């Protein structure tokens, strides 16, 4: 009995099924994408970052000097200053049940 053609057909079918499922797996989750509001003030640009309507970070870009962030790390409304290009997205905003 020659099982090679049967095995090849089974592997090909499984591979095509997985390939068809990949685009669905790769879709970005729109719920996790932040809403960004940008405002221009006299000497700075302010960006407010929200997820599910919750403000979790504010980026302040002064016309002179480095930009900085104010981040609400635990969802209590108290914002802490954070320097640098990367902001840590608080987990309290990401998971809601």
Could you give a quick summary of the protein structure above?
It is built from two helices and five strands.
Task: Explain the overall architecture.
The protein is an alpha+beta fold and 97 residues long. The chain has a domain at 35-94: S-adenosyl-L-methionine-dependent methyltransferases (Single Sheet). Helix content is 28%, strand content 32%. The chain contains two helices and five strands; from the N terminus they run αβββββα. The chain has a five-stranded antiparallel β-sheet, with no helix packed on it. A hairpin with a 3-residue loop joins strand 1 (35-40) and strand 2 (44-51). The N and C termini lie far apart (54 Å). The mean pLDDT is 74. Keywords: Signal.
Number of helices: 2
Distance between the termini: 54 Å
CATH superfamily of the domain at 35-94: Protein of unknown function DUF2782
Task: Write down the overall geometry.
Answer: elongated
Strand content range: 25-35%
Outline the low-pLDDT stretches: none
Global structural class: alpha+beta
Radius of gyration: 23 Å
CATH architecture of the domain at 35-94: Single Sheet
Element pattern in H and E:
HEEEEEH
For the largest sheet, list the strands in their spatial order: 1-2-3-4-5
* Helix percentage: 25-40%
The total count of strands amounts to 5
CATH fold-level topology of the domain at 35-94: S-adenosyl-L-methionine-dependent methyltransferases
CATH classification, class level of the domain at 35-94: Mainly Beta
- Averaged pLDDT, please? 74
How would a textbook summarize the main sheet?
5 strands, antiparallel
InterPro entries: DUF2782
Protein name: DUF2782 domain-containing protein
Keywords: Signal
Organism: Halomonas icarae
């Amino acid at each position: 009995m020659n099982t090679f053609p049967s095995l090849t057909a089974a592997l090909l079918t499984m591979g095509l099924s997985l390939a068809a499922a990949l685009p669905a797996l790769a879709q970005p989750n729109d719920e996790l994408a932040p809403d960004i509001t940008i405002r221009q003030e006299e000497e700075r640009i302010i960006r407010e970052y929200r997820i599910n309507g919750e403000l979790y970070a504010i980026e302040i870009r002064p016309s002179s000097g480095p930009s900085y962030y104010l981040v609400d790390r635990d969802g209590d409304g108290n914002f802490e200053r954070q320097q640098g290009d990367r902001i840590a997205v608080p987990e309290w905003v990401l998971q809601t049940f």
